[in-house]
Amino acid sequence: MTTTTLGEFIRTHRERTTPQSVGLPSIGRRRTPGLRREELAQLCEVSPTWLTWLEQGRGVSASGKLLARIAEVLHLTAAERTYLFSLAERLDPQHDEDEASADQSLQAIVDAIDGPAYMLDRQWDAVAWNEHALALFGGWLDVEGTAPAKPNLLRFMFRSPAARGLIIDWEERARRLVAEFRADTGKHAAQQPLAALIAELARDSAEFSKLWRSQDVVSREGGQRRFHHPRAGELSFNQVTLHMAQRYDMKLVILLP
């Protein structure tokens, strides 16, 4: 955690937040028009000493719930909130609440692509896909809209017999996929819900467990992807993976013929 930068960011925005904007009376002489450290600590239900240490970059750790409260009190914009969580290297719990509205715009993006395309979140759950992707990955993406869990690429790869029949050179692709996943998750792998997903896959798949313990890391660079489709026969694509500018935890995957 870049604690000094995180502390400076919080202090600067604390000093920009007026007492009136958070429902506090502006009483007494102030060196700054913004909130006092004690006032922000009270509003966030932490001790002034802890907040002082956080602003001074003294190595204290802030949970995602507490960061969300700080963002709320300081009236951070969406971009500022994202930056706050990035500095703290924490997952924003608000992402789960925003999924329903975000999925509509993500779906419009993949629908506009003339070829298999899908969107993955940080857990590699598919949050949007088009008809071309559905036709290719029938054993993965053909789920009911009311299903309790989104289709997950790693669960499909390691727990579905359909994946082994569809993906040519399954063993090599599985090895690279786990290495790409480790690179993609970084320090977030120890946080929920990623930690639970990794534990589940390691429990249910000896192959995933072995590959995860190998500590291999590669970037998700794309390249040739070959499939043996049960109806269309052998297919070959060039994979391109792009990150969304405003939602860097989202990846757009496009398969070009």
Tags for this entry?
Beta-Lactamase; 2 domains; 12% strand
How are the strands ordered across the major sheet? 2-1-5-4-3
Quaternary structure annotation = single chain
Q: What's the overall average pLDDT, rounded?
A: 87
Based on the structure given, which CATH architecture of the largest domain is correct? 2-Layer Sandwich
Report the CATH C-level class of the largest domain. Alpha Beta
Strand count, sense and closure of the main sheet?
5 strands, antiparallel
Radius of gyration (Å)? 22 Å
Figure out the total of helices: 13
List the helices and strands and how they pair.
Elements: H1 3-16, H2 37-44, H3 48-56, H4 64-73, H5 78-88, H6 94-111, E1 117-120, E2 126-129, H7 131-136, H8 138-141, H9 153-159, H10 161-166, H11 170-185, H12 194-204, H13 206-213, E3 223-229, E4 233-243, E5 251-256
Antiparallel strand pairs: 1-2, 1-5, 3-4, 4-5
